[in-house]
Amino acid sequence: MITAPASVAITTPEAVGVVNVTAQIRTALQGTPIRRGIVVVTVPHTTCGLCVNEDEAGLKDDLKRLGAHLLDPLERHGPFHHDRIDDNARAHLTSVLIGPSAILQVDEGDLKLGTWQSLFLLELDGPRTRRIEMIFIGE
């Protein structure tokens, strides 16, 4: 069993945005001896998340609106308490729904993704520079 850590910095251009990071994960994988196994991908930030989905413009727009859509009913009961500190409670709460990590399979030295699947960083409080951490585990 081999483990190989890696990381990459991603600068997000928007306040709320969807960035396809699949190529960066593949590039990091190429720098390892792993041919078969998994990669655990995480973001050590509380106002962004990771998800696997289709790289389609309409869907990416829908992902950008997800937090507002899900949290608007909650906010009708009063302002978010965290907004008293730095006015980004919506970003924190949306990141809870998306999650900070993804586990992907590695097979034959490449990510094993479905035809339409990509890995996305969802920026919820940008623009910022985000760090993506990876640990490749396998043989």
| Pattern of helices and strands | EEHEEHHHEEEE
Specify the CATH architecture. Sandwich
CATH topology: Jelly Rolls
Question: Mind summarizing the main beta sheet?
Answer: 5 strands, antiparallel
How many domains? The number is 1
The quaternary state of the protein chains shown equals: single chain
Provide the helix percentage. 25-40%
Helix segment count? Answer: 4
Q: Give the CATH superfamily.
A: YjbQ-like
Q: Please give the CATH class.
A: Mainly Beta
In terms of per-residue confidence, which ranges show pLDDT below 50 for 5 or more consecutive residues?
none
C-alpha end-to-end distance: 5 Å
Name the strands of the widest sheet in spatial order: 1-8-3-5-6
**Rough shape?**
elongated
Strand content: 35-45%
> What is the arithmetic mean of pLDDT?
95
CA-atom Rg in angstroms: 16 Å
Number of strands: 8
Instruction: Classify the secondary structure makeup into a structural class.
Output: alpha+beta
Describe the secondary structure blueprint for this structure:
Elements: E1 2-11, E2 17-20, H1 22-30, E3 37-42, E4 48-54, H2 57-75, H3 83-86, H4 89-98, E5 101-107, E6 110-111, E7 117-123, E8 129-138
Antiparallel strand pairs: 1-8, 2-7, 3-5, 3-8, 4-7, 5-6
Q: Quick gist of this model?
A:
The protein is α+β, with helices and mostly antiparallel strands.
